[in-house]
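Notebook, student rotation project (T.W.).
Task set for the rotation: take a protein with a known small-molecule partner, predict the structure of the complex, and write up what can be learned from the model alone. Partner molecule chosen: zinc ion. Sequence and SMILES entered below by T.W., checked by me.
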Amino acid sequence: MTSEEITAPHMVPGRLYVPYFNYYGAPGSEFYRQLRDNKKIMGIKCPQCKKVYVPPRSVCAACFNNLSELVEVSSKGTLLTYTVIHYTYSPSYQPADVPYACGIIQLDGADTGLCHLLGEVDLDKITIGMQIEAVFKDERKGNILDIKYFRPV
Ligand SMILES: [Zn+2]
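Predicted structure of the complex:
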């Protein structure tokens, strides 16, 4: 054997399933509790620059202030951008059957975008700037998929 043959990589395909729990901090925890218990979408407001983040975060990305003031934002907003997914890469991990659409939604009262699924819409008729609203699941578990999707208003 040559040294090139010995060092040539040999790839063996495999699949991993890694169950985990993720702690989202106090603001993130309240965000998910409000989704689950009250169908409310919470943001967090910077005391200095007044920017409202959805989902909440602990530090302002604009002025680096610590954030703690949770504020309710609307469940309606504007579609900032979107994509349509046509490829099934791993059915057990994708949130919907293809084709489906995901978008970045700026809720009324927020300054940032929230990434989520789009539903009840013809995939060929989605437009940037369209007004959309959250549709909540009947049975909610305290995660982002408590919002089933966003649909046109
Ligand atoms: Zn700020």
